[in-house]
Specification:
Mean pLDDT: 94
Shape: globular
Number of strands: 3
Strand content: 5-15%
CATH topology: Rossmann fold
Radius of gyration: 14 Å
Helix content: 40-55%
Order of helices and strands: HEHEHEH
CATH superfamily: Response regulator
Largest sheet: 3 strands, parallel
CATH architecture: 3-Layer(aba) Sandwich
Low-confidence stretches: none
CATH class: Alpha Beta
Amino acid sequence: MIVAEDGAKALDFLFGKGEFEGRNTADHPRLILLDLKLPKIGGFEVLEAIKHDPILKRVPVVILTSSRQEEDVVRGYDLGANSYIRKPVNFDTFIETVTQIGMYWLLTNESAEV
């Protein structure tokens, strides 16, 4: 699992730029959990960049955020998110939710090869 602390670092990792220059960008993540409230570059901008890339657009992106704004849900799906999940406040429930997301998207879901 790779964790990016902000949107700029997430994009640098995905596209092999900055500190990730030279990374094998053919080694794509199988799933991206995306928070909307990222520092530097926001989650919507990260999602847009992913879904505009001819190869990365097939990687499932699950928005996992605290936002309860209906316009965020709509915008996320309009930009190509595969799922929108509100983060549980309780830590144990959060861990269980992330485990369930992983089980579904990585083991149950039939994904396109990227």
